[in-house]
Automatic annotation (TrEMBL):
Species this protein is from: Parascaris univalens (Nematode worm)
Residues of the Exoribonuclease phosphorolytic domain: 22-138
Protein name: Exoribonuclease phosphorolytic domain-containing protein
Protein family per UniProt: Belongs to the RNase PH family.
Keyword Transcription (UniProt): no
GO MF annotations, alphabetized: RNA binding
InterPro entries assigned: ExoRNase_PH_dom1 (IPR001247), ExoRNase_PH_dom2_sf (IPR036345), PNPase/RNase_PH_dom_sf (IPR027408), Ribosomal_Su5_D2-typ_SF (IPR020568), RNase_PH (IPR050080)
Gene Ontology biological process terms, A to Z: nuclear mRNA surveillance; poly(A)-dependent snoRNA 3'-end processing; rRNA catabolic process; rRNA processing; U4 snRNA 3'-end processing
């Protein structure tokens, strides 16, 4: 899936132009054995794996009486080094989206691994986690996705590759959540944001608008991916 979004430059934000094209997206679900849900997501040349185990048994030291205990591990590259910042952001997203009250005394283990890095890894990892959760069938109150925007030489660039990020003045990774209010119209709102570099607030607002517009296409990709999975699963059962 390759997406071209339209966005008008904004003189008030100091942005002369925007490059608003998402790299091609591909996803494979249920590819890891011995997991309750998994997703391999390709976003351009960036490849992220996400796996879900649980809800299941939890050590007594981590057990919560009133809700699900969530453990997140985000690994960079081929190393075993974990990122505190990415773990914090993902934990916050999951707490807001998974219906934790439904699973007291249980644990959910979420692992994200960078398999191939070519920019926007955190954003792709967030989207991969959402697909892995949907694959697992856990109860959720919405879906979410990650989108990265780079600001380079007065230009906003959607879904930047590594080469662009190296030369960027600032970098924004947004997480948007789509959910229904009272089972009616769906709404999209930003639930997390990670920033890097020095920027004006007007630049931040312009980047957020660009990312929000692109989120609609990624949410469509999530739904189409799940529809294909469900149709294949139904065919295998029959």
């Amino acid at each position: 899936m390759e997406v071209q979004c339209t966005s008008m430059p904004s003189s008030s934000s100091g942005i002369d132009s925007t490059i608003s094209k998402l790299r091609q997206l591909r996803a494979e679900l249920s590819f890891l054995p011995r997991t309750d849900g998994s997703c391999a997501l390709e976003q351009g040349n960036t490849v992220m794996w996400a796996s879900i185990n649980g809800p299941g048994d939890v050590p007594s030291s981590k057990r919560l009486d009133e809700k699900l205990y969530i453990e997140v591990v985000y690994r960079h590259g081929q190393s075993n080094l974990c990122s505190v910042e990415e773990n914090r952001i993902l934990s916050s997203i999951l707490e807001q989206t998974v219906d934790t009250i439904q699973y007291p005394h249980k644990m959910l283990a979420v692992t994200i691994q960078e398999m191939q890095s070519d920019g926007s890894e955190m954003a792709a990892g967030v989207t991969a986690v959402c697909l892995a959760l949907l694959d697992s069938g856990i109860i959720m109150n919405g879906i979410f996705c990650g989108i990265c925007v780079a600001h380079c030489d007065d230009t906003l660039i959607l879904d930047p590759c590594r080469k662009i990020i190296i030369n960027a003045d600032s970098l924004f990774t947004f997480v948007f959540k789509s959910s229904a209010i009272d089972h009616k119209e769906r709404t999209t709102r930003m639930v997390e944001c990670q920033t890097r570099g020095v920027f004006e607030y007007a630049t931040f607002e312009a980047a957020m608008r660009l990312a929000r517009d692109a989120s609609a296409e990624i949410f469509l990709f999530l739904r189409e991916t799940m529809q294909r999975k469900l149709s294949i699963d139904s065919w295998m059962i029959t």
